[in-house]
Each structure stands twice: as structure tokens, then as C-alpha cells.
Design brief:
The chain is of the alpha/beta class and about 240 residues long. About 35% of the residues lie in helices and about 25% in strands. The strands form two sheets. Strands 1-2-4-3-7-8-9-10 form an eight-stranded mixed beta sheet, sandwiched between helices. Helix 1 packs across helix 7 and helix 3 crosses helix 4.
Length: about 240
């Protein structure tokens, strides 16, 4: 598999694929990492997905954008964030049973992160020209929140959305936007023992997707804030379905 690092839409992106030289992808999977992780954090998923679904090697390109904000000065060298996050405040809200109050919040910095990821998508589509490609947006944790927000707002919707350990934000806005996404395919996973983002909040998000008419595959699992093997398997199957649609 080849990988290159280049600027797309103003973000530093890691682009991976095993496509034959000169061949364009049928599917582009844009995957956003979580809070505090380096831009390369999820890059190994590309190899794992191709191992699980070898047929994707001639069809899919993976794009892993590095988030806007450096966390070097916060004691996390190489770590990045899509927007500032008060981890202590989040933990206190969970401990006090007040996480529900955060479901309607619009985090400072989300607007800038949204604009950046939207520009990545715009540039990818522009470069593809008339041939185009099928777009899958996804992410883990904070990256899942951002990919959800952008998927609900893009003028031309993605072909699928992958939400790995995400949560509900901007509830009023998201509910209104979700109605315009039709039967968008959504793969959503969450650990029942997740100590970072409560499982209950994933259920709120699932219910919102379902009420809007989206085709939701919800994968709860016994575990914490992670991506288990069966979720990778289902993600690979989703990519196959999108490629063949």
C-alpha cells in the first residue's frame, strides 16, 4: 500500500491506497481522528480494511486529515484536536449525571473545524472532475462528531457515514438537518462501558438518525472507547456495499 502526505483543503492529510498506477478510486473514505491523537492515528485502519476486504484494494482511497489544532503546548507532542475540549468538565458532567445537558451544546471551534473538513471534501470532489467518486465520511470520537456534523450539512450528501464512538451535539440543528439526508447509510458503534462518551448518548444519536429515516446499523459492544474487530469487519462490508452501489 502506498501513502503520501499532502495538503488538501488546507489540512495536512495522509492519503493511502493500493490502487494500480493511474487508476482513480470508486470510493473515497475520509476518516477523522479523535481528540489528542496525531494525524496518523487511524492510518493503520486502511491496511486492516484491505486485509479484511481485499477486493477494495482496486476501488478505495483513504484520506486521513490531521486536525486543525496542535496540542504540543498542552503536553501532548504531536497530538491534535478539531476544537478545544475541557476534559475535566466533561468528566465532571458524566460523574454528576449531567451529560444530557451537553447534547444541545455547540462547542467553540466546531464552526472552524466544519469549514476545514468541508473544504477537504470540496477539493477532493473538484480534483476528481466529472468521473467523481462515492464518498464515505467517518471518524472516531471527536472526529466522529465532526464527520456527523459535516455529513448532515454537505450540499451533496455523502454515500455513507461511519460513527465510531461518537456522541450527540448540536441536537436542535442536527435534528432539523437530518430530515434532508433521506435513507443515508449510517454505521455506528459504541462501547457499553465507554468511560469517555457515555453509551446512552450514542443511543440518543442512533435514535435521531433512525427517526430521520436513515439506514442505521448500530453496533454496541462490550468494551470502552475503542474500535473492536467486528466493527472493522462491518466497516469493510459497508465500503464494499458503497463501491458496488
Amino acid at each position: 500500500m502506498g501513502m503520501e502526505q499532502r495538503s488538501i483543503g488546507g489540512l495536512n492529510c495522509f492519503v493511502a491506497d493500493a490502487l494500480p498506477a493511474g487508476q482513480d478510486p470508486d470510493v473515497v473514505f475520509v476518516v477523522c481522528h479523535g481528540f489528542g491523537a496525531p494525524g496518523t492515528d487511524l492510518v493503520p485502519l486502511a491496511g486492516e480494511l484491505l486485509r479484511l476486504q481485499p477486493g477494495l484494494a482496486s476501488r478505495v482511497r483513504f484520506v486521513f486529515p490531521a486536525a486543525l489544532l496542535s496540542m504540543d503546548e498542552m503536553g501532548l507532542p504531536g497530538g491534535r484536536a478539531w476544537w478545544p475540549l475541557n476534559v475535566m468538565q466533561l468528566q465532571q458532567a458524566i460523574a454528576a449525571g449531567e451529560f444530557r445537558s451537553l447534547r444541545t451544546s455547540i462547542p467553540p471551534g466546531l464552526t472552524e473545524a466544519r469549514a476545514a473538513l468541508t473544504e477537504v471534501v470540496r477539493e477532493l470532489r473538484q480534483d476528481a472532475g466529472k468521473k467523481g467518486f462515492r464518498l464515505v465520511l467517518g471518524g472516531f470520537s471527536q472526529g466522529a462528531m465532526l464527520s456527523t456534523d459535516v455529513a448532515l450539512r454537505l450540499e451533496t450528501p455523502p454515500d455513507a457515514l461511519v460513527v465510531l464512538s461518537g456522541t450527540m451535539l448540536c441536537e436542535t440543528e442536527w435534528e432539523a438537518l437530518a430530515a434532508s439526508r433521506g435513507n443515508l447509510a449510517v454505521l455506528q458503534s459504541h462501547g457499553r462501558q465507554d468511560p469517555v462518551l457515555p453509551f446512552e448518548a450514542a443511543e440518543w444519536l442512533r435514535d435521531m438518525f433512525t427517526a430521520a429515516g436513515m439506514a442505521v446499523e448500530f453496533l454496541p459492544f462490550e468494551g470502552g472507547h475503542t474500535i473492536p474487530a467486528n466493527v472493522l469487519q462491518q466497516t469493510g462490508q459497508l465500503l464494499v456495499q458503497v463501491a458496488e452501489s
